[in-house]
Amino acid sequence: MSNDIELHHKLITMPTGKKASDIVFERHDMVLLFEAKKANPNGDPDAENMPRIQPNTLKGLVTDVCLKRKIRNFFSLYKTDGTLIEDGKTTDGYGIFIRENAILEQLMKSPPIEELAKKIFVERYETNEKVERSSELDNFVKEHKKYRYDASSKILTITGVMTDADKKTLIDSLKENADKKAIEKLFEKAQHNKIIENCWDAKKAKKGTKKKDKSKTGDTAQPGDTSTTDTVDDKQQEDELNPSEEKKQESYRDALCQSYFDLRAFGGVLSTEGPLKGSFYGQVRGPLQFSFAESLDKVLQMDFTITRCCSTSKKEEDQLKKQSEGDEKTGGNRTMGRKYNIDYGLYRTHIYFSPAFAAKTGFTYADLDNFLFAITHMFTDDTSANRSGMRVVGLIDFQHSRPLGNEHAHKLFDMVKVEMRNKSKEFPESIEDYWGEYPGTDQKEEHKNSNNNSVCDQNKKPETQEELNGKIDANKIKVKKIIWEIPKKKNNV
């Protein structure tokens, strides 16, 4: 991924000294709230696609994979700047690995992935030496892409293999320069890289103990002696990896993470087939994880019977005529079906971000900014006849100042409070039946303008430690409101 990328949406607060292309260093904990009105937010295929319900509480449920699918679908349709993808050309690094009708083994073995993996593999074995700068050296570096020279540190770096011809050309270009010895050292180091690069195409070798055939030497086989054949015991055979096989697998993992956003964000199991089959590096743990979303209160499940006035085939038409013979009400090509939804539900889920896993998958600040932007539009192109009343109404980001975090996530989540106004009401009907608050901001003016500006770029600074109820240090944890459309609690309630 490019090092000169910028934040398109500025939905996160960049730490001092960090760039958009840097790996996210600090922990984040987020609260996401969304509503479903006359909609089926997540059908259960084992229950005729009825909305998922918690049996003991009758609260609605939405699975984590359902929410991740919305994010994947967004990046399948839009570029990171919000413009439409044309001709299937996604933004570099924002392809989607887990997509409809995809064959994962073919994706992992595709030429672009193999080429990128090999490039990463070779770059892991760079060599360098300190060389005095000269115009001849500058010209040489410009002509040979695998060389680069840092003028400030006077370091000449080579990626991959340095051939005899390269060595001669480089030394000749330096003429009488005293750094010929440095070039000799660089050449010696680069010879090791030639061995490493050749290991990319090396195969696994079988090793085992070869048994001696005693019948050929005239020895007499003794009772119980099983070593009389010139074969290798299968149990003693085992795979022997070439020295760079582990680095090769690691390079494939990194190439896949660099190419596919969902692997970089959510992780995945890549060890079933393909180049990472059975490999430790095929178990990718992503830094972003969702909890199941659960409605704050009971949801009223609705059941509708629908009819269809046509047939899919002549055969079906004949069957329907036989079934409805003599019944004028059900005659013709009518078939019956069912639809399910809920009247209203306000759902809440928590999102956890681990910088430890971000370092392994290469998840950057630009990725996090684009992810938050995708959440704000996760239901924009997800509408259907039975899922038209879905929208995000709350998104709060707690940004810590260190990788381990400055406070436990559950304590931060407890500070985002959303409750029913009238607790005697069994089923909520709209967002106006709720009030909510989050720490660190004066929501009075924000609520007035919530319809005009639901997404803000920068939160107001928390006032005092007392305003945060003494639970978090406002200097160490930033509370960022990205979306908040839930009414504020009135004083007399």
Secondary-structure-based class equals: alpha+beta
Amount of beta strand: 15-25%
N-C termini distance: 52 Å
Largest sheet: 8 strands, antiparallel
pLDDT under 50 segments (min length 5)? 205-212, 214-218, 226-239, 443-470
Count of discrete domains: 2
**What's the shape?**
globular
The portion of residues assigned to helices is 25-40%
Radius of gyration: 31 Å
Strand tally is: 19
Number of helices: 13
Protein model, in words:
- The protein has 13 helices and 19 strands.
- By secondary structure, the chain is an alpha+beta fold.
- Strands 1, 4, 12, 13, 14, 15, 16 and 19 form an 8-stranded antiparallel sheet that branches.
- Strand 6 (147-150) and strand 7 form a beta hairpin.
- Helix 5 (164-174) packs antiparallel against helix 6.
- It starts with 27 loop residues before the first strand and ends in a 9-residue tail after the last strand.
- The model is unreliable at 205-212, 214-218, 226-239 and 443-470 (pLDDT under 50).
